[in-house]
Amino acid sequence: MTRTALVLGGMGGIGAPLSRGLLERGYTTIVASRSGLEANEGQPSNAALSGRSVDLLDSESIEQFCSEFINQWQSLDVLVITAGTAALGDVAEIEPEDLSRMLSEHVIGPFHIVKRLIPLLEPGGHIVFLLSRMGRSPRRHGTAYGTAKAATEYLAASLALALREKGIRVNSVSPGAVSTPMFFENFPNRAPASALDPKDVAGVILRILEPEFDSLNGAVLDLEHTDRENPGLGKTGSTGTVDFRPAIGEHEIER
Ligand SMILES: NC(=O)c1ccc[n+]([C@@H]2O[C@H](COP(=O)([O-])OP(=O)(O)OC[C@H]3O[C@@H](n4cnc5c(N)ncnc54)[C@H](OP(=O)(O)O)[C@@H]3O)[C@@H](O)[C@H]2O)c1
Fold first, then answer.
1. What confidence tens digit (pLDDT) does each residue in 19-55 have?
2. Does ligand 1 lie within 6 Å of residue 16's CB atom?
3. Could you tell me the residue ranges of all domains in the chain?
4. Which atom of ligand 1 is nearest to the CA of 10?
5. Under DSSP, is residue 88 helix (H, G, I), strand (E, B) or coil?
6. pLDDT (tens digit, 9 = 90+) per residue, 59-108?
């Protein structure tokens, strides 16, 4: 039977390798973001993807997207929420509107979509949220983004509790810096090797969709990384060097 996956932000830095991986594993894969498939036009694998437009900041756009999705696909096996931007800055630099935008993109919009699409998810369905180290380990410049990501963690955990009776699992992946457009926009001087490879983050998400992880629910997978040009050290976020811990593959699973 064909399985269906929806990746919000599916053409983004983490979303693109994830969407390709889902296609390779036989999922009918739909990517959705403000620009749908347009963001990466011309990529050979895109021909097999379906693209839809949705703006997490706009509840009308979400309603329209969900109604069309329900009409077209009727069932959903995997929903990964890897969309959004990062407004960084401390209290002097961040305005209430920035915090509101972060909460809309990372909490309210995703909640709206999950709520509308729950009826499509069958037992065995899986929802995956992208958290961030900044939401788990406060930074002064995380006033808006980190606060929203901390709230995303709570949302994911509460959904995991609420949906387990339906046999639907909700797990979260929480990386440090990942070398994607979001990262380079915020930290233009950082070397790609000082951050996680987005393929590795996508690989972890693909891995937890496998049947061997069927009992994983309500988990947060914290992804440490090693500076690939300086493998004795692991760097987190943008604020310094921490002790080396195992890289992906031996990640912690916190319950
Ligand atoms: N990169 C990092 O260092 C890092 C670290 C930890 C966690 N994360 C998290 O990982 C996830 C993916 O990040 P990424 O690095 O892959 O970012 P990215 O490359 O910038 O991709 C994010 C995608 O989200 C979509 N998007 C942005 N705003 C949207 C909105 N209002 N409505 C719908 N879609 C929207 C964008 O597509 P459109 O422009 O087409 O809308 C974009 O393709 C995010 O949740 C991020 O917070 C990233």
1. 999 999 999 999 999 997 665 555 555 667 899 999 9
2. no
3. 3-252
4. 43
5. coil
6. 999 999 999 999 999 899 999 999 999 999 999 999 999 999 999 999 99
- Say which residue the tokens 């036009």 belong to: 41
State how far the Cα of 205 lies from the Cα of 172, in Å rounded to an integer. 9
Q: Does domain 3-252 have CATH number 3.40.50.300?
A: no
Least confident residue range of 141-155, 169-183, 215-229 = 215-229
Count H helices, E strands: the chain? 8, 10
Q: What is the best residue among 180, 204, 239, 248 to mutate for testing ligand 1's pocket, by most ligand atoms within 8 Å of CB?
A: 180
Spacing, Cα 1 to ligand 1 middle (Å)? 31
Residue 43 structure tokens: 């990529």
Six-digit token pair at 124?
Answer: 């065995």
- Say how many Å lie between the CA of residue 13 and the centre of ligand 1: 7
Task: Say how many Å lie between the CA of residue 40 and the centre of ligand 1.
Answer: 14
- Our answer on whether the CB atom of 236 is closer than 6 Å to any ligand 1 atom is no
- The owner of tokens 């053409």 is 11
pTM across the whole model: 0.90
